[in-house]
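quick one before i forget lol
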Amino acid sequence: MIYRVRHRTTYSYDAPVTFARCILRLTPKSSPGQALYEHRIVVTPTPAQALQRTGPFDESLLALIIEEPHLELVIDAISRVEVSTPLIEDPAESPAWDRVRDQSFASAALGGASPASYLYPTQRTPLLPAITEYGRISFAPGRSIIEATAELMSRIRADFIYEPGVTSVFTPPGEAFAARRGVCQDFANIMICAMRGLGLPASYVSGYLRTVPPPGRPRLEGADATHAWVSVWCGQDQGWVGFDPTNALLVGHDHITLAAGRDYGDVAPIEGVMLASGAQALKVEVDVLPEEDSSIVRAPFGAAQRAGLRR
């Protein structure tokens, strides 16, 4: 499936901003199962400096310095990307999770794709006994890692209430776990804490999920949003496999990866500092459009649409 993706971020300020420094992670990742054909980022006002580089987890970074005074900052990222994620034919054929755990700790590689990079707790994804024990229910000794992880993913989908607005990017996973509610970021954090508590490498993935309209209704342009899920290392032969606990889905052709890291801090689409006084407002608008989709109905950019998939 080939997609055209547009991700527009608008910051509006009450007082002029005289200086801003930003780091952008808005370039879809090129990896097995995903090919980036076209990409551009347009920033208004025009940055005084722009430096492209690769981050520690193989993510594409664009560092900007903006020196022109402005009341509004608009960042438009436009991409054309093909997703061909291989499907898991028989989860039961994947290796036993305890064998994968042993392989993970034996790994000597330190690159961005190495399991060793994702074994240990971080400030945003600490080891919490209650979450570890919640995860352990699915991991009987010798059970296939994909089967066990898929069951944990499905339990999170069933046991937790999807409720936007009750958490933020700063909400600790222990708090969301106790409340049994949150959004995609919270469910990804909880699943990562459980996996790492069992000694299994898991990464936090940021990206997009195509929204499929209800049967009989056209798809509205502007109906998509950013999303988060989990990638789990499933052994030397299987490699990394994506799990979406928000929707209880193995990651497939509808998921487009921006970046993967230890937690949200490694993959935040935009971060930085600016000099100004007064309040600011943030607006994020995303379109994920299949290139050959003739059923798209034009709507105001960023229009929301409810469907069966959660964000």
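fyi The chain is about 20% helix and 35% strand.
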